[in-house]
Amino acid sequence: MSEGPRDVAIVAFAQSDHRRRTDELSEVEMVMPVLHEVLDAAGLTTADIGFTCSGSSDYLAGRAFSFTMTLDGVGAWPPISESHVETDGAWALYEAWVKLLTGEVDTALVYAYGKSSPGSVRDVLTRQLDPYYTAPLWPDSVALAALQAQALIDAGDTDETALAALAVRSRSDAAANPHAQLPGARPQGDHVVAPLRTGDCPPIGDGAAAVVLAAGDRARELCARPAWITGMDHRVEAHALGVRDLTDSPSTRLAAERAGAFDPAAARPLDTAELHAPFTSQEVVLRKALGLGDDVRINPSGGALAANPLMAAGLIRLGEAAARIHRGESHRALAHATSGPCLQQNLVAVLEADPRA
Question: Residue 343: is its pLDDT beyond 90?
């Protein structure tokens, strides 16, 4: 099923209820219930996990090596094989997937979390920018997304009315998602940075997510309908925004190609896509880059417009896509995660049900 040496699947997924503020909770207290839930769903204990990998950001936490504190949520005993990525948990899942492909372990726990509420996210994210030319100007994340949106409008790819319709669709779908921070359609509101209005932008909030991966027969033992990862790849755009075409995402297209999303020999077509598009305009870019038509269900969970916990939202896209396969609501799904300004870094995974399922 997989081009790699082993078949690897997502066998369980859990996430927190995403909220605007969680002042009463530490990162450990936010993560621990999610870890317990995902392990229970897989019927495993910490001792059964061969490898653990997490994704988070010290910039959000405001202290160095903050991820070491949340390991208390995993447990101090028995000793674990552990790693961490300083980015969205989707990249932690990629590391765990590679670990499983090597045959060193049969199971892996991946989790990610972010508390955006304590500070100004728009200011914090400027630290991702080129430190010599762009960061000193302090263009915040919404202003940069607005530049991208305006470029799309100028190119004739969309307009404000079409962007508003994307927001309505996403948040209407989120009404069926009990974990969403902003479920249900709502007014677009005033411009935050033109042409983006409040409704075009993601909510600021806190949240966590976790998945369990397993290989081969172990995955079949743990899940009645595993979501097999048939391909995964990640690519990056040029760091300098001025040398990029903001209306396109060649790195997403290349990652999808390497992941097998466009494989003409695939037994089933893509039926679902969970796209990490924090701004409505970014969905326009991603749909074009991935060639997704109206026959593909986009963000049935509501996507990042309904809940966007930084460092966990990309992992949630993979988890939501897998969960639809677990429930029999999808047979072949694409999951996408992004990091950095204007879709700078992009990861694409293709998930499939067993052809016999």
Answer: yes
- Is residue 139 within 8 A of residue 122, CB to CB? The reply is no
Question: Where does residue 27 rank: exposed (0-12), middle (13-18), buried (19+ CB within 10 A)?
Answer: buried
Please provide the DSSP assignment of 324-348 as one string: HHHTTS-SEEEEEEEESTTS-EEEE
Which secondary structure element, helix H or strand E, spans residue 233, and what is its range? strand 227-236
Q: Which residue in this structure is represented by tokens 């940069």?
A: 144
Q: Is the pLDDT of residue 237 over 80?
A: yes
Asked if 349 and 315 touch (Cβ cutoff 8 Å), the reply is: no
Q: What is the per-residue pLDDT across 6-50, written as a single tens digit (0 to 9) for each?
A: 999 999 999 999 999 999 999 999 999 999 999 999 999 999 999
Residue 64 and residue 54: Cα distance in Å, rounded?
15
C-alpha R_g of the chain: 19
Average of pLDDT values for 77-83?
Answer: 90
Phi-psi region of 136 (alpha: psi -120 to 50; beta: other; left: phi over 0): alpha
Confidence class for position 60, pLDDT limits 50, 70, 90: confident
Output the average pLDDT for the chain. 95
As to burial, measured by CB atoms within 10 angstroms (0-12 exposed, 13-18 middle, 19+ buried), residue 144 is: buried
Please report where in the chains the tokens 């995993």 appear, as a residue.
74
Q: How many CB atoms lie within 10 A of CB 136?
A: 11
